[in-house]
Write a structure and sequence with these properties.
With 491 residues, this protein is of the alpha/beta class. It is built from 16 helices and 15 strands. The protein folds into 3 domains: 6-274, Rossmann fold; 282-424, Isoleucyl-tRNA Synthetase, Domain 1 (Orthogonal Bundle), CATH 1.10.730; 441-488, no CATH class. It is 44% helix and 14% strand. α8 links the parallel β9 (238-244) and β10. Bound molecules: zinc ion (ZN).
């Protein structure tokens, strides 16, 4: 299967023509959430970015196995090797089983992703469900000579690895610079070198999540789960590994070191990273008071928000920027996105009701081809959206009676919007974001409009007024225009 998809490979720092390892199949791994709290805006961007890639690869005809992991053990508070386990801490504070904490936040994460119309991945493996595989993987790294045991824990030997391979090639760092910016060991450390990272940690007595291993009763290091589960479900070499730019170092750098050490070669062909989100120019963080959860965006309850935002507005806003650019959230920017999305959806709805003419009075460009060209250019969604707005202009001119469109052109436009806006960009057309398919609902309202038009034509004002008034009472906006009736959903 051939395609013209160029994707930016973070490892080579260049756009490369996408060619999968196995003809017709794509293996794709994206680092998922650590489930110890509600999903916030920072979770939305990678989820949406790789949802677009997932949708597009499937559109190109590939059979895609998309793995997105759940980190439920080993993600420590201060860094990868230190502090309390985030899930365990939550469990201790709330007097719950760690798995209760995991399930609770995982359910909520799924609910938020569903609201954002992010498709579920093919496999969603838990780190805690792959302890045996992780232990086996550590054994391979020790056998290869790139890890050592110290006081019941096992550390990756970064110096030794760097002597044979380049540690830092993904993030463009080198070990000397890294050493200069790392605090030196205090003499108490179990590590040989401050850059060494834990593959296995011996559990301290208060640590509630631990498993037996050849080295100690303990738990795996955070970086290990992705190397292990990626290999288990996608094979020794797979196509795409994605995640947020903040994961590039140390997380993904360590993943590369682990797989080169254990398997003798890189496991991943294309590394992809989405850029970060700021809020009103500031990094998101608990200390800035701008840590807004997705639920708070959806219901407008956070003090920094002047209103609630439909999940589709959040999605559309994120897609208006290229995934490798930063995105800055503010009420003004979101309100602009809300207006733009409304404009797009209005055009889409008008398109469904356009009456074809004998022939088109203007030339309608091949918008589908243009959108695909932009998608092929490293998923350039802002350009895709710009093309759709060009198409919307033509639809609006036809709706206003300034131009005519042939049935064939109308069908091509319908196909473009259905494929690009609905299937690829994943915008729920005409929905308030929550419900699944709203076409039945819209069809029912259109039917009421038709009955009302017939009633008016036969001067049955009682019926026509009844329909208008009842819909108005439900919050619908019904407008009579010279080209017929226009309606919009309750706000
Ligand atoms: Zn990961």
């Amino acid at each position: 299967m051939d395609n013209n998809l160029l994707i930016y490979n973070t490892l080579t720092r260049s756009k490369e023509l996408f060619r999968p390892v196995h003809e017709g199949h794509v293996g794709m791994y994206v680092c998922g959430p650590t489930v110890y709290g509600d999903a916030h805006l920072g979770h939305a961007r990678p989820a949406i970015t790789f949802d677009i890639l997932f949708r597009y690869l499937r559109h190109l005809g590939y059979k895609v196995r998309y793995v997105r992991n759940i980190t439920d053990v080993g993600h420590l508070e201060h860094d990868a090797d230190e502090g309390e386990d985030k899930v365990a801490k939550k469990a201790r504070l709330e007097q719950l089983e760690p798995m209760e904490v995991v399930q609770h936040y995982l359910n909520r994460y799924h609910r938020d992703m569903e609201a954002l119309n992010v498709l579920p991945p093919s496999i969603e493996p838990h780190a805690s469900g792959h302890i045996i595989e992780q232990i086996e993987y550590i054994k391979k790294i020790i056998e290869a000579g790139y890890a050592y045991e110290s006081c019941g824990s096992v550390y990756f030997d970064v110096t030794k690895f760097n002597a044979d391979h380049h540690y830092g090639k993904l993030s463009g760092r080198n070990i000397d610079d890294l050493l200069n910016t790392t605090r030196s060991l205090d003499g108490q450390s179990e590590k040989r070198n401050p850059l060494d990272f834990a593959l296995w940690k011996k559990a301290s007595p208060e640590h509630i999540m631990h498993w037996p291993s050849p080295w100690s009763e303990g738990f795996p290091g955070w970086h290990l789960e992705c190397s292990t589960m990626g290999r288990k479900y996608l094979g020794d070499t797979f196509d795409i590994h994605g995640g947020g730019m903040d994961l590039m170092f140390p997380h993904h750098e360590c993943e590369i070191a682990q797989s080169v050490a254990a398997q003798g070669h890189d496991a991943v062909r294309y590394w992809m990273h989405n850029n970060m989100i700021t809020i009103a120019g500031k990094k998101m963080g608990k200390s800035y008071g701008n840590f807004i959860t997705l639920e708070e965006f959806f219901n407008g309850s956070h003090p920094l928000l002047t209103q609630a935002y439909d999940p589709m507005v959040i999605r559309f806003f994120i897609l208006q920027a290229h995934y490798r650019s930063t995105v800055d959230f503010s009420n003004e920017a979101l309100q602009a996105a809300e207006k733009a999305l409304q404009k797009m959806l209005d055009a889409y709805r008008r398109l469904q009701n356009l009456k074809p003419s004998e022939k088109s009075s203007v030339e309608v460009p091949d918008f589908m081809a243009r959108c695909m060209e932009a998608m092929n250019d490293d998923l350039n969604t802002p350009v895709v959206i710009a093309h759709l707005f060009e198409a919307a202009k033509i639809i609006n001119s036809a709706f206003d009676g300034n131009i005519t469109l042939s049935a064939e052109d109308i069908d091509r436009l319908k196909e473009t919007f259905r494929v690009v806006l609905v299937d690829l960009l994943g915008i729920r057309a005409g929905s308030e974001g929550g419900a699944a398919d709203t076409s039945a609902y819209e069809g029912a309202v259109d039917l009421l409009m038709e009955i009302r038009a017939n009633a008016k034509a036969s001067k049955d004002w009682t019926t026509s007024d009844l329909i208008r008034d009842k819909l108005a009472a439900l919050g619908f906006n019904v407008k009579d225009t010279k080209n017929g009736v226009e309606w919009s959903l309750p706000q």
